[in-house]
Amino acid sequence: MGTQETVEVQKVSFSDELVAFIEQWKDKRGNLIMILHRVQQEFTFLPWDAMRQVSEMINTPLAKIFGVATFYHYFKLEKPGKHKLAVCMGTACYLKGAGDLITEFGNLLDIKVNETTEDGLFTLESVRCVGCCGLAPVVMVGDEVYGKLGTDGLPAVLAEYRGEKGE
């Protein structure tokens, strides 16, 4: 006899603004991506219950919504950390050691790319060129740019954001 896995569905509530946005877009061509962007803006990711609600509201199969959400790299199906560590892997950054930065962040935080720390504080991402090639290698934490970083500078970057949480 096989085991049955239980999937926990987090119940979410849409803001009035999100409901109005979905109503405004529900009958427009190309609406799904716009709606999913707005849902992710509200929740920082696409919770299962939110995708189910969108499916019902715009009369689109959940399988199609999931297909779009998993096809585009921008959409996240898991809640990201409070701070996104985006290591630029564009040509200049790559040549100046961005791969070492990813490895060291992974060692310091005990996570891999596209994972979140257990405390929910950091998510590590590898991203394409962020347009700061003169500062290579570059790490972005939210909208903050850290350039000309070596692996020895990463603990100080992490300490800045840990301090926000009072750790």
TrEMBL record:
InterPro entries: NADP_DH_HndA-like, NuoE-like, NuoE_dom, NuoE_N, Thioredoxin-like_sf. Signal peptide: none annotated. CDD domains: TRX_Fd_NuoE. [2Fe-2S] cluster binds at C88, C93, C129, C133. Pfam families: 2Fe-2S_thioredx (PF01257). Binds 1 [2Fe-2S] cluster. Keywords: 2Fe-2S, Iron, Iron-sulfur, Metal-binding. One of its GO terms (molecular function) is metal ion binding. Its cofactor is [2Fe-2S] cluster. Belongs to the complex I 24 kDa subunit family. PANTHER family: NADH-QUINONE OXIDOREDUCTASE, E SUBUNIT, POTENTIAL NAD-REDUCING HYDROGENASE SUBUNIT. This is NADH dehydrogenase. The lineage of its organism: Bacteria, Pseudomonadati, Spirochaetota, Spirochaetia, Spirochaetales.
